[in-house]
TrEMBL record:
Keyword Signal in annotation: yes
Stated name of the protein: Substrate-binding domain-containing protein
Periplasmic binding protein domain segment(s): 51-276
Listed InterPro entries: Peripla_BP_I (IPR028082), SBP_2_dom (IPR025997)
Pfam families documented for this protein: Peripla_BP_4 (PF13407)
Chief location bin: other
């Protein structure tokens, strides 16, 4: 039976899941891994038997990729390893309870994509005090963890919005479909704004929370299309909200604009292949 010292292998499969979902042929998205050298010493000689994973939304292809990557790697390490993946629904209280439940159940390894980098700290501290290994994925946390693995979300936002700026020849009206205010989303928006700031004739006319979902993208974009008669481009902070925005544009028969997302998801690829849509790229 493999030991918890195989943490390096576990880090690799989570990292691969993140990069695999974010990477596209035209993106330069990088993955950053930070490992805490003070990994719980109490687990050095304990067999790895259980992994608990709490993610934002298991209806989102990005989080599904993380889940599958974890399950596939765990199976390669040992058939006896059990993986329990749950969805937080981007709710801090629910995610904190999930981490506490994993801790109480003596789960060896806890992996999370934090809903709130500060709010989740007490649950993480409790887990590590109890001897659990904790890994944060994609969103940073203001707590000591054994490792932090993320794609370069600032760079993803910069790449996406540089593409927008260049395609618009430096002039036009841009809408940002923001998301749940977690660290990864905030970084994507920051990166986007960094790029668009280099184009003085580009105006951000709307920045609203589309909740990172297809339904949210459809709802917010429908309202934006009603409010603004001239929209040239949309930056969606993830592909799911971008796909929803694409549907809204179709329904409104608005084809003068284009949409750029982030995550490189299969849904985005499908949308980009549809000539009737306006989803053109994902970082």
């Amino acid at each position: 039976m493999k030991k918890v010292l195989f943490l390096a292998s576990i880090l690799s499969f989570v990292g691969i899941a993140v990069v695999g979902c974010n990477g596209t042929p035209n993106s330069n998205t990088a993955t950053n891994t930070t490992t805490n050298t003070a990994t719980n010493a109490s687990l050095k000689n304990k067999a790895l038997q259980t992994i608990g994973i709490t993610l934002g939304d298991l209806g989102n292809p990005f989080y599904v990729a993380v889940q599958r990557g974890a399950e596939e790697k765990a199976k390669k390490i040992g058939d006896e390893i059990r993986v329990n993946t749950v969805s937080s629904g981007f709710d801090l209280n629910q995610q904190s309870n999930q981490i506490e439940n994993f801790t109480a159940a003596n789960t060896d390894l806890i992996i999370l994509s934090a809903v709130d980098k500060k709010g989740v700290k007490p649950a993480i501290d409790q887990a590590r005090s109890a001897g659990r290994i904790v890994i944060a994925v994609d969103s940073a946390v203001d707590a000591d963890v054994d490792a932090m693995i993320s794609s370069n979300n600032i760079q993803a936002g910069e790449i996406a919005c540089k593409y927008i700026g260049d395609r618009l020849n430096g002039k036009g009206n841009v809408v940002i479909l923001n998301g749940t205010p977690m660290d990864s989303i905030n970084q994507r928006v920051s990166g986007c704004r960094n790029s668009l700031a280099k184009y003085p004739d580009i105006k951000i006319i709307s920045d609203q929370n589309a909740e990172g979902t297809r339904d949210g993208g459809l709802r917010v974009m429908s309202d934006v299309l009603t409010t603004f008669p001239k929209i040239d481009a949309v930056f969606a902070t993830n592909d799911q909200s971008g796909v929803g925005a694409d549907l809204a544009a179709r329904q409104a028969r608005r084809k003068e604009l284009f949409i750029v997302g982030v995550d490189g998801s299969p849904d985005a690829t499908k949308a980009m292949e549809d000539k009737d849509g306006v989803f053109v790229a994902t970082a």
